[in-house]
Design goal:
Layout: H1 4-16, H2 30-41, H3 43-57, H4 67-86, H5 96-118, H6 120-123, H7 125-130, H8 137-164, H9 177-202, H10 206-217, H11 227-234, H12 238-244, H13 247-259, H14 278-303, H15 307-310
């Protein structure tokens, strides 16, 4: 048993220690830097959470990560026959299967980041209530899992382009649109997911609204139809510009122009139309997405103070 003298001495030592800030500091500049350093300090834990996310997803599964391919492949078959063959979209879109798979791969990355991030705090409520951690690592772990699935699907897409494309792949400057499109999509989706993950703690209906929005917004990007049809219908008017203001739409179109060799043909009846100044549009969208990510993190930091109580 500790004697009263020892207890008093220990209390005196604790009282003499300087006060230390626990948690993330406020402030748009200093707070952002502190948040980044906290996440970096816990990068090993972030890696463990990503691995846990992947293991839990394929736990007791015989095929493992192969299941990450079945959903987009099933969607590909459905849209290829329903939209491509039955409705005739494939007749005006060369290499229609590759075209659709590019769109599904990009959309799957966006949808998985947003839906996974939205529920990340609730899914890890036990850790949030027990220990202090930079809460951002939970949405980031969901993003890490989504990126892993995207890379697996990208490998399959690359193989399909090499083996199945009827038009030879052309190495030109359009190839550089691919990394720019992916980075833009990831940054924008992370900004949306980080914001929604904090809001979902307070408003639990958020995750259900997100699921519905994902289904609806799927058709707001040229995934199963070509942008050429949109341009022929709208002729570049303000509605088309509003349509192109969607970062997901620009990212999908950028990836299609980079990897869909058939759409790069400049002559013939199947010539495809692309938005003007696509590279500049994507670059501007990336810069805006970075600002949105910064604002989302600051909002997340302000809301996270009461996460434990709300959970």
């Amino acid at each position: 048993m500790t004697s009263p003298v020892d207890a008093d001495a220990r209390a005196a030592v604790i009282e003499s220690l300087p006060m230390e800030h626990v948690g993330q500091r406020s402030g748009f500049v200093r707070g952002t830097g502190r948040s980044l350093s906290d996440v970096w300090a816990h990068r090993e834990l972030l890696g463990l959470l990503v691995r846990r996310e992947l293991k839990a997803r394929y736990k007791d599964s015989s095929l493992g990560i192969v299941w990450s391919l079945f959903r987009p492949l099933a969607q590909l078959l459905i849209y290829y026959f329903a939209i491509g063959q039955v409705l005739g979209a494939a007749r005006g879109t060369p290499d229609f299967a590759i075209f659709v798979f590019i769109g599904l791969t990009m959309w799957g990355l966006f949808a998985e980041i947003v839906t996974g991030s939205t529920t990340a705090i609730l899914a890890n409520s036990g850790l949030v209530k027990k220990v202090y951690l930079p809460r951002e690592i939970f949405p980031l772990s969901a993003i890490g899992g989504a990126l892993f699935n995207f890379l697996v699907q990208l490998v399959v897409l690359t193989i399909a382009i090499v083996l199945l494309a009827t038009v030879p792949f052309a190495w030109n400057l359009n190839v550089f649109l691919a990394p720019l499109a992916v980075v833009t999509l990831v940054v924008f989706a992370t900004a949306i997911g980080l914001f929604l993950s904090a809001v979902n703690v307070y408003l639990r209906d958020t995750q259900h609204l997100v699921e519905i929005a994902i289904v609806i917004l799927f058709w707001a990007s040229p995934i199963v139809y070509s942008f050429t049809y949109v341009h022929k219908l709208l002729h570049g008017n303000w509605i088309e510009q509003l349509y192109l203001a969607n970062p997901v739409t620009l990212a999908v179109i950028g990836m299609q122009k980079a990897l869909w060799a058939a759409g790069s043909a400049s002559e013939g009846p199947l010539t495809q139309t692309w938005p003007d100044h696509l590279f500049i549009r994507l670059l501007i969208t990336l810069l805006i997405s970075v600002v949105l990510l910064w604002l989302s993190q600051r909002i997340f930091s302000r809301l996270q103070g009461n996460f434990a109580q709300e959970l």
